[in-house]
Specification:
The chain is of the alpha/beta class. It is 27% helix and 13% strand. It contains six helices and seven strands, in the order E-E-H-E-H-E-H-E-H-H-H-E-E. The strands form two sheets. It has a five-stranded mixed β-sheet, sandwiched between helices. The chain has a two-stranded parallel sheet with strand order 6-7. A hairpin with a 2-residue loop joins strand 1 and strand 2. Helix 3 crosses helix 4, helix 4 runs antiparallel to helix 5 and helix 4 runs parallel beside helix 6.
Protein backbone atom coordinates (compact mmCIF):
# COMPACT_ATOMS: atom_id res chain seq x y z
CA UNK A 1 0.00 0.00 0.00
CA UNK A 2 1.29 3.40 -0.88
CA UNK A 3 2.49 5.54 2.00
CA UNK A 4 3.20 2.58 4.30
CA UNK A 5 6.76 2.04 3.18
CA UNK A 6 8.04 5.36 1.84
CA UNK A 7 11.49 4.88 3.30
CA UNK A 8 13.07 5.25 6.72
CA UNK A 9 11.33 7.64 9.00
CA UNK A 10 13.25 10.78 10.03
CA UNK A 11 14.73 10.34 13.45
CA UNK A 12 13.95 12.80 16.17
CA UNK A 13 16.92 14.99 17.05
CA UNK A 14 19.00 13.61 19.87
CA UNK A 15 18.49 15.22 23.23
CA UNK A 16 21.21 17.70 24.09
CA UNK A 17 23.61 17.00 26.92
CA UNK A 18 25.43 19.31 29.25
CA UNK A 19 28.57 18.91 27.15
CA UNK A 20 26.87 20.10 23.94
CA UNK A 21 28.22 23.30 22.39
CA UNK A 22 26.35 26.30 23.68
CA UNK A 23 24.98 24.49 26.71
CA UNK A 24 24.35 26.72 29.69
CA UNK A 25 26.12 25.47 32.80
CA UNK A 26 24.81 26.60 36.15
CA UNK A 27 27.38 26.60 38.94
CA UNK A 28 26.90 26.86 42.65
CA UNK A 29 23.30 25.64 42.83
CA UNK A 30 23.90 21.90 42.69
CA UNK A 31 22.87 21.59 39.01
CA UNK A 32 24.93 21.30 35.88
CA UNK A 33 22.94 20.90 32.69
CA UNK A 34 20.89 22.46 29.96
CA UNK A 35 18.36 25.11 30.82
CA UNK A 36 15.48 25.91 28.51
CA UNK A 37 15.37 29.40 27.11
CA UNK A 38 17.89 31.78 25.52
CA UNK A 39 21.51 30.76 25.64
CA UNK A 40 23.81 32.61 27.96
CA UNK A 41 26.05 35.19 26.25
CA UNK A 42 29.57 33.97 25.43
CA UNK A 43 31.11 36.33 28.00
CA UNK A 44 29.01 34.97 30.87
CA UNK A 45 31.20 33.94 33.80
CA UNK A 46 29.33 33.09 37.00
CA UNK A 47 32.57 33.10 38.99
CA UNK A 48 33.75 36.53 37.77
CA UNK A 49 34.07 39.27 40.41
CA UNK A 50 32.43 42.52 39.36
CA UNK A 51 34.88 45.45 39.21
CA UNK A 52 33.28 48.80 39.98
CA UNK A 53 35.46 51.95 39.73
CA UNK A 54 34.87 54.83 42.15
CA UNK A 55 32.77 57.85 41.16
CA UNK A 56 34.39 60.00 38.44
CA UNK A 57 37.37 57.66 38.20
CA UNK A 58 39.86 58.43 35.43
CA UNK A 59 43.55 58.11 34.65
CA UNK A 60 45.38 61.44 34.88
CA UNK A 61 48.83 60.29 33.79
CA UNK A 62 50.88 57.12 33.93
CA UNK A 63 50.60 55.90 37.51
CA UNK A 64 48.19 58.68 38.58
CA UNK A 65 44.42 58.18 39.01
CA UNK A 66 41.66 60.52 40.20
CA UNK A 67 38.21 59.79 41.60
CA UNK A 68 35.58 60.50 44.19
CA UNK A 69 35.77 58.86 47.61
CA UNK A 70 36.00 55.06 47.19
CA UNK A 71 33.39 52.78 48.76
CA UNK A 72 33.84 49.12 49.77
CA UNK A 73 32.29 47.99 46.47
CA UNK A 74 35.20 49.75 44.70
CA UNK A 75 37.97 47.92 46.58
CA UNK A 76 38.22 45.03 44.10
CA UNK A 77 38.75 47.52 41.25
CA UNK A 78 41.36 49.47 43.22
CA UNK A 79 43.22 46.23 43.95
CA UNK A 80 43.90 45.98 40.21
CA UNK A 81 45.72 49.34 40.27
CA UNK A 82 48.39 48.08 42.72
CA UNK A 83 48.39 51.43 44.50
CA UNK A 84 51.32 52.55 46.63
CA UNK A 85 49.81 55.85 47.74
CA UNK A 86 46.46 57.54 48.28
CA UNK A 87 46.02 61.31 48.55
CA UNK A 88 42.67 62.40 49.98
CA UNK A 89 41.96 66.13 49.75
CA UNK A 90 38.94 66.72 51.94
CA UNK A 91 37.70 67.94 55.29
CA UNK A 92 35.94 64.79 56.47
CA UNK A 93 37.36 62.02 58.61
CA UNK A 94 38.25 58.95 56.58
CA UNK A 95 36.14 55.83 57.04
CA UNK A 96 37.57 53.02 59.16
CA UNK A 97 36.81 50.36 56.53
CA UNK A 98 38.68 52.36 53.90
CA UNK A 99 41.71 52.94 56.11
CA UNK A 100 41.74 49.27 57.11
CA UNK A 101 41.67 48.17 53.47
CA UNK A 102 44.59 50.47 52.64
CA UNK A 103 46.58 49.36 55.69
CA UNK A 104 46.16 45.68 54.82
CA UNK A 105 47.73 46.37 51.42
CA UNK A 106 50.55 48.56 52.68
CA UNK A 107 49.20 51.68 50.94
CA UNK A 108 50.43 55.01 52.30
CA UNK A 109 47.56 57.41 52.93
CA UNK A 110 48.03 61.19 52.90
CA UNK A 111 44.98 63.00 54.27
CA UNK A 112 45.44 66.61 53.20
CA UNK A 113 42.66 68.55 54.86
CA UNK A 114 41.14 71.05 52.46
CA UNK A 115 37.68 72.57 52.46
CA UNK A 116 35.71 73.05 49.27
CA UNK A 117 36.04 76.58 47.89
CA UNK A 118 33.01 78.75 48.65
CA UNK A 119 33.91 82.36 47.89
CA UNK A 120 34.07 84.75 49.65
CA UNK A 121 34.02 82.67 52.83
CA UNK A 122 36.27 79.68 52.02
CA UNK A 123 39.21 79.78 49.61
CA UNK A 124 41.40 76.98 48.29
CA UNK A 125 44.47 76.33 50.41
CA UNK A 126 47.74 76.80 48.44
CA UNK A 127 49.75 75.06 51.18
CA UNK A 128 47.59 71.93 50.93
CA UNK A 129 47.88 71.85 47.13
CA UNK A 130 51.67 72.30 47.32
CA UNK A 131 51.97 69.43 49.82
CA UNK A 132 50.04 67.14 47.44
CA UNK A 133 52.22 68.16 44.47
CA UNK A 134 55.35 67.23 46.40
CA UNK A 135 53.98 63.71 46.83
CA UNK A 136 53.09 63.46 43.13
CA UNK A 137 56.54 64.67 42.02
CA UNK A 138 58.21 61.63 43.60
CA UNK A 139 57.84 58.59 41.35
CA UNK A 140 58.40 56.27 44.29
CA UNK A 141 54.86 57.14 45.44
CA UNK A 142 53.30 55.87 42.21
CA UNK A 143 50.83 54.36 41.41
CA UNK A 144 48.76 56.92 43.33
CA UNK A 145 45.06 57.68 43.65
CA UNK A 146 44.10 61.30 44.32
CA UNK A 147 40.52 61.82 45.38
CA UNK A 148 38.12 64.16 47.09
CA UNK A 149 34.55 63.33 48.08
CA UNK A 150 32.89 63.55 44.66
CA UNK A 151 35.97 63.78 42.44
CA UNK A 152 34.97 67.16 41.01
CA UNK A 153 36.22 70.43 42.50
CA UNK A 154 38.97 69.85 45.07
CA UNK A 155 40.62 67.03 43.16
CA UNK A 156 40.03 69.10 40.01
CA UNK A 157 42.02 71.96 41.55
CA UNK A 158 44.82 69.57 42.49
CA UNK A 159 44.97 68.01 39.02
CA UNK A 160 44.86 71.49 37.48
CA UNK A 161 47.82 72.55 39.64
CA UNK A 162 49.66 69.38 38.63
CA UNK A 163 49.09 70.13 34.95
CA UNK A 164 50.31 73.72 35.38
CA UNK A 165 53.27 73.27 37.76
CA UNK A 166 54.51 69.74 37.06
CA UNK A 167 53.63 69.37 33.38
CA UNK A 168 53.64 72.91 31.92
CA UNK A 169 50.19 72.63 30.35
CA UNK A 170 48.57 75.74 28.89
CA UNK A 171 45.87 77.29 31.07
CA UNK A 172 43.29 76.78 28.33
CA UNK A 173 43.90 73.01 28.40
CA UNK A 174 43.87 72.98 32.21
CA UNK A 175 40.53 74.79 32.40
CA UNK A 176 38.98 72.57 29.74
CA UNK A 177 39.89 69.42 31.68
CA UNK A 178 38.63 70.94 34.94
CA UNK A 179 35.24 71.77 33.41
CA UNK A 180 34.80 68.22 32.07
CA UNK A 181 34.69 66.84 35.61
CA UNK A 182 33.26 69.82 37.48
CA UNK A 183 30.13 70.08 35.30
CA UNK A 184 30.79 73.76 34.70
CA UNK A 185 33.54 76.15 35.71
CA UNK A 186 33.66 77.33 39.30
CA UNK A 187 35.06 80.87 39.26
CA UNK A 188 36.90 80.47 42.56
CA UNK A 189 38.69 77.32 41.45
CA UNK A 190 39.56 78.71 38.02
CA UNK A 191 40.98 81.88 39.55
CA UNK A 192 42.98 79.87 42.08
CA UNK A 193 44.58 77.66 39.42
CA UNK A 194 45.42 80.72 37.32
CA UNK A 195 47.28 82.61 40.06
CA UNK A 196 48.63 79.58 41.96
CA UNK A 197 52.42 79.47 42.21
CA UNK A 198 54.67 76.90 43.84
CA UNK A 199 58.27 75.78 43.78
CA UNK A 200 58.50 71.99 43.73
CA UNK A 201 61.99 70.52 43.99
CA UNK A 202 62.18 66.97 42.67
CA UNK A 203 64.83 64.26 42.57
CA UNK A 204 65.71 63.51 38.92
CA UNK A 205 66.52 59.90 39.85
CA UNK A 206 62.92 59.34 40.96
CA UNK A 207 60.96 61.74 38.76
CA UNK A 208 57.82 60.42 37.03
CA UNK A 209 58.14 60.10 33.26
CA UNK A 210 55.39 62.66 32.69
CA UNK A 211 57.06 65.40 34.79
CA UNK A 212 58.32 68.45 32.89
CA UNK A 213 60.70 70.87 34.57
CA UNK A 214 59.73 74.53 34.49
CA UNK A 215 59.63 77.70 36.51
CA UNK A 216 57.69 76.04 39.32
CA UNK A 217 59.31 72.60 39.12
CA UNK A 218 63.10 72.35 39.41
CA UNK A 219 65.51 69.46 39.78
CA UNK A 220 67.39 69.04 43.04
CA UNK A 221 71.10 69.82 42.57
CA UNK A 222 73.32 66.76 42.75
Amino acid sequence: MSGDNDGPRARAPAASTSSSPGAYREHGGGRVGDVAGPRAPPFFRPDTKLLVPPLNCSMVASGVWRSGHPLPLNFAFLDKLALRTIIYVGDKNMQAAYLGWAQERGIRVHHIRMESCKLPFVENDPGAVTAALEVLADGRNLPVLVHSDKGKHRVGVLVGAMRKILQNWSLASVFDEYSQFAAGKEDGDIEFIEIFQARIVYDPAHAPRWLRAGAGCVARPE
